[in-house]
Design goal:
The chain folds into four domains: about 5-95, Zinc finger, CHC2-typedomain (DNA Primase, Chain A, Alpha-Beta Complex), CATH 3.90.580.10; about 105-240, Alpha-Beta Complex (DNA primase DNAg catalytic core, N-terminal domain), CATH 3.90.980; about 260-405, Dna Topoisomerase Vi A Subunit, Chain: A, domain 2 (3-Layer(aba) Sandwich); about 455-625, no CATH class. Helices cover about 50% and strands about 10% of the residues. The protein contains 28 helices and 15 strands. The chain has a five-stranded mixed β-sheet, sandwiched between helices. Helix 17 runs antiparallel to helix 18 and helix 27 (about 580-600) crosses helix 28 (about 610-625). The longest helix is centred in the last third of the chain and has 29 residues, at about 545-575. It starts with 6 loop residues before the first helix and ends in an 8-residue tail after the last helix. About 35% of the residues are buried.
């Protein structure tokens, strides 16, 4: 149907937006300015208690500052009440006292056809409900009772029963005036391919009516009573009224519950939804026999910005969750997120509620994991990352997944979260926490593992005070200037302090967190007079510009010292029995001399308190005497 020019403008001019929206919201009259047509209310599209939803009568538009829903009166009727475009226009016209334009014959015929199918489905629903109370429905009643569904529950969800007869429903509807074509078009009967007589689609099944957001019956789902049936659950086919990928079971009541502050929870099937609702989680919905589609995700976001996906804790449930990750990543952004509540293995919501009570299910929903956790789980579970290539492959896979997120800010937060998870996974083993001795007092730190043979041969078992000081300055600089951490992330990871507190501090710096051991280690560093001697540490605001150069210089120095030590150790191992303490000392002194000559000052004054001229003299003396040679050779 084509509307004449200006018809919609006339509707909007005659009907204030607040009149349409006011049927669904409770206006905050303290915040609203009625005289100016400026209205505020809690948003009807997502559960909240504050008035972040704004409707402007003068402009004719609404906007939610929480979930970013926006539009005009027609959009509101379509989104909030699930109306089609022409139905929304008809409601507006009724409010305005205007006649709808005459529909074209084709549109009028289509609308009449939809009304006929709705009537047929409502009559079928009443018949199914009556059959549940007959003798043929006794087994179905027993099954529902075994699932804890009493008469009140059956009435609330309008549950019925289809007897195991080939044409019982078809005969009933035809006797009431419906044609066979209408029953088939409504999805209640099917015609065999060989052209035989039509037969009932639902037979020997418990029946669940499926209603759209406006409450109209649009199809049915049926659970087989026969355990050997080919399909445990059967849904109606696609019809003029029913698109299973664009609808959700229990959507209307769930939307009302979410508007009152309940979470929106997506379960797997009809009985799961019923169990959740009976446990007090009334914002429960379910897809209709298919994997969750993009249209259904967008429909969920119209109700709540962060639905919880509650999936059975079996292999199929996990596979469904992992598939959903790929579907949702290109759609996610501010106000459009998902969380996941993975149930214990082998349990559905009804099992969990029966075994542990409704509180256990609510706790699981409240503790649902964000989408980024599912992405990480999918890419890491059961895999070993024991080589640089495997770690690089993981980083590439995660980067490709995050790149699919359209919103830049959301991408950045995903990147940061995954970075922390990678560090937690790949961080080097750290010294265990102190064990408590007798009387509850803390004992000494457990001894570190035995040094390698080449380390013992070089007599470098004792910690090098120079290395420890430089290491401490690096960590203090990073703590005082956290913006520099990203620039030196890879180098910071390689430090691997022997001290447990410093190792915790490295972890804190890289992960953006704060731990008690890390905080204590930082306090100890900042109280060390040698560390505080650096102006970039003691006066970070005044000497902040120098921090980067000092940090890079310190990292160069520490890495060079450790590289030299590694070279000495390898050389000693290769020399074997020819090495002695004198050779070790001479090679160490040579390495130190070269190091000090190559790396000038680190501090504001010029170095770490070392005499550069004396060091230069030592280097010259070492070269002149060829100290790497043994005496007598």
């Amino acid at each position: 149907m084509t509307l004449p020019p200006g018809f919609l403008d006339e509707l909007r001019a005659r009907v204030p937006l607040s009149r349409i929206v006011g049927r669904k919201v409770a206006w905050d009259l303290r915040k609203s300015n009625q005289a100016k047509g400026d209205w505020w209310a809690p948003c009807p599209f997502h559960g909240e208690k504050t008035a972040s939803f704004h409707a402007d009568d003068q402009k004719g538009f609404y906007y939610c500052f929480g979930c970013h829903a926006k539009g005009d009166a027609v959009t509101f009727l379509r989104e909030a009440e699930g109306m089609g475009f022409m139905d929304a226009v008809a409601v507006m016209a009724s409010e305005a006292g205007m006649q709808m334009p005459e529909r074209s014959p084709e549109n009028r015929q289509r609308a009449e056809r939809r009304t006929e199918l709705t009537d047929v489905l409502e009559r079928a629903m009443r018949w199914f409900r009556m059959q549940l109370q007959t003798g043929a429905g006794a087994a179905a009643r027993d099954y529902l009772a075994s699932r804890g569904l009493d008469q009140a529950g059956q009435d609330r969800f309008e549950i019925g029963f289809a007897p195991d007869q080939r044409q019982a429903l078809l005969r009933h509807l035809k006797e009431g005036g419906a044609t066979e074509a209408q029953v088939v078009d409504a999805g209640l009967a099917a015609r065999p391919d060989d052209g035989g007589a039509a037969y009932d689609r639902f037979r020997g099944r418990i029946i669940f009516p499926i209603r759209d957001a406006r409450g109209r019956c649009i199809s049915f789902g049926g659970r087989a009573m026969d355990p050997n049936a080919r399909a445990k659950y059967l849904n109606g086919p696609e019809t003029a009224l029913f698109d299973k990928g664009r609808n959700l079971y229990n959507l209307g009541p769930a939307r009302a519950a979410v508007a009152k502050g309940q979470p929106l929870v997506v379960a797997e099937g009809y009985m799961d939804v019923i169990a959740l609702v009976r446990a007090g989680i009334e914002g429960a919905v379910a897809p209709l026999g298919t994997a969750i589609t993009e249209d259904q995700v967008r429909l969920l976001w119209r109700v709540s910005p962060e639905p919880v996906i509650a999936l059975d804790g079996d292999a199929a449930g996990l596979r469904a969750a992992m598939r959903l990750v790929d579907l949702v990543l290109p759609l996610t952004g501010p106000g459009q997120a998902l969380r996941f509540a993975l149930l214990p293995a082998g349990q559905d919501p009804d099992d969990l509620i029966r075994a542990s009570g409704a509180g256990a299910m609510r706790a699981l929903v409240e503790g649902a994991q964000p989408l980024v956790d599912l992405l990480w789980l999918r890419e890491t579970e059961g895999r070993v990352f024991d080589s640089p290539e495997r770690r690089a492959a993981l980083e590439r896979t995660l980067a490709e997944a995050v790149a699919r997120i359209p919103d830049p800010a959301t991408r950045d937060h995903y990147t940061a979260a995954l970075k922390r998870k990678r560090y937690d996974l790949f961080a080097p083993a750290r010294t265990p926490r102190r064990e408590r001795g007798p009387g509850g007092k803390q004992g000494r730190e457990p001894a570190a593992g035995p040094p390698l043979p080449q380390t013992r041969a070089s007599r470098l078992v004792a910690a090098d005070p120079g290395d420890a000081l430089i290491e401490g300055m690096i960590l203090a600089l990073c703590a005082r200037h956290p913006a520099l951490v990203d620039q030196v992330e890879a180098r910071l990871e390689r430090i691997q302090p022997a001290d447990a507190g410093r190792a915790a501090l490295v972890h804190d710096l890289l992960s953006g967190r704060t731990s008690d051991p890390g905080r204590r280690a930082l306090d100890a560093l900042l109280s060390d007079p040698h560390v505080r001697a650096l102006p970039a540490i003691s006066q970070p605001r005044t000497f902040g510009d120098e921090a980067q150069a000092v940090l890079l210089n310190a990292l160069d120095r520490l890495e060079s010292r450790r590289t030299q030590r590694d070279e000495i150790a390898r050389a000693e191992a290769e020399i074997g029995g020819l090495a002695d303490e004198g050779l070790t000392w001479r090679m160490t002194q040579s390495a130190r001399a070269r190091q000090h000559a190559d790396h000038p000052s680190l501090s504001h004054d010029g170095d770490f308190g070392e005499d550069r001229e004396a060091l230069a003299g030592q280097l010259a003396e070492a070269l002149r005497n060829e100290i790497w040679r043994k005496p007598g050779r």
